[in-house]
Amino acid sequence: MLQRHFSSLIRERWELARCLYVGGARQVGKTTLLRGLFPELPYVNLETPESRNFAQSDPKGFLRHYPDGAVLDEVQRVPELFSWLQESIDGGVRWILSGSQNYLLLESISQSLAGRVSILELPGLTPSELRGTPAPEPMALLRGEIAPVPATVSRWEALLRGGYPEPVLKPRLRRAWHEDYLRTYVERDVRQLVNIRDLPLFQRFVALCAGRTGQVLNYSSLGNDAGISEKTVRSWVGLLDAAGILFLLPAHHRNFNKQVMKSPKLYFCDTGLACHLLGIRDETTLSVSPFAGSLFETWVVGELRKLWMVRGERAPLYWWRDSAGLEVDVLVDEGQGLWPVEIKSGETVDPALWKNLERFRKLQAGDAPKGSLIHGGEAARTQSDVQVVPWTAF
């Protein structure tokens, strides 16, 4: 079994918390990880009819059946449990909860278990996990302090496989797995969350979102292309966000006396899933695709986000664009300053690639950092005060 960086964080939180919730997208590896970390605890899958019926019909009796606690998986299937869990936790019993529908779960947790539960979200596999090396510290990576390692796959293959364990570890089954995943998610999970009558329309909407990964989210434009209202777009984007299919990168508020864009950028959490939705099946097709640059940016931003997630921290990541068209792909808000990052999918490193970093630095007062260029090659160096970081540093 692959060693997940998240393991140490889970153990650390379990030592302190009365109750632990581990969320994340479906099939991201939560069950395998929790069963491996806590073999001494009973494991209960509330997807199974027998366990679910017992928990629904007699929640108090169900919890008493596990006097020393248990791992309760897919706990969102039995919302009746949460008020009784509160009583059990207050009585000294410790529980580990897991689920893949954060929209429902976090609402129930905030209402019933506030102050009693530690909340974590498991991301997909990272390149360092696949190599068996420690997770790099995010700012050390951006400052060029992490030595890159020789790539075992091309950057295009890394994008195609994504981070779900099954398609990563079983590449021959990748296409069928992604198709089954989408069918299961759309036909089952979505029906549990909201009443969407036209499932083919929702499937088309998900594909349209994949085509906009790495772009500014324009709710009105997306609604026009999908044939739905802006209100529905906002609802469905929130649904995909809650299910771990996509995430939104907020715009940074700092304006430097200029008008700035305030809309978020949309990113898919998994580039493998995005490639599948876009009909991209192989490296050759991806390398010449008009989506290649935005998918590479999606991969980089997603991997940066994971580096903070495995530390149990909120990723301080933003993007920035002013009214004159000056744009920075990623801003890391370090509290004391802003670290700008440009992302380019090409292998060739040219000073023209960081002209936006130079322009952005001039807007900041004092000795602002020049920032980082993350690119699709393997060159690692400092040039013109810019940290040139290869994608293999992740």
Instruction: List low-pLDDT spans.
Output: none
**Largest beta sheet: what is the strand line-up?**
9-10-11-12-14-13
Strand proportion, as a percent range, falls in 15-25%
Overall pLDDT: 92
Number of helices: 18
The rough form would be described as globular
- What class would the helix/strand composition place it in? alpha/beta
Portion of residues within helices: 40-55%
Q: Can you count the beta strands?
A: 14
Largest sheet: 6 strands, mixed
Give your account of this protein's structure.
This protein is of the alpha/beta class. The chain has two domains: 6-121, P-loop containing nucleotide triphosphate hydrolases (Rossmann fold); 127-316, no CATH class. It contains 18 helices and 14 strands. It has helices at 6-16, 30-37, 49-57, 59-64, 81-90, 102-112, 127-131, 138-142, 155-161, 165-169, 174-193, 199-211, 219-226, 230-242, 271-277, 283-287, 292-309, 355-363; strands at 19-23, 43-45, 71-73, 95-98, 117-121, 215-216, 246-249, 265-268, 317-321, 327-333, 338-344, 372-375, 381-383, 386-390. The strands form three sheets. Strands 9-10-11-12-14-13 form a six-stranded mixed sheet, with helices on both faces. Strands 2-3-4-1-5 form a five-stranded parallel sheet, covered by helices on one side. Strands 6-8-7 form a three-stranded antiparallel sheet. The longest helix is centred in the middle third of the chain and has 20 residues, at 174-193. 41% of the residues are buried.
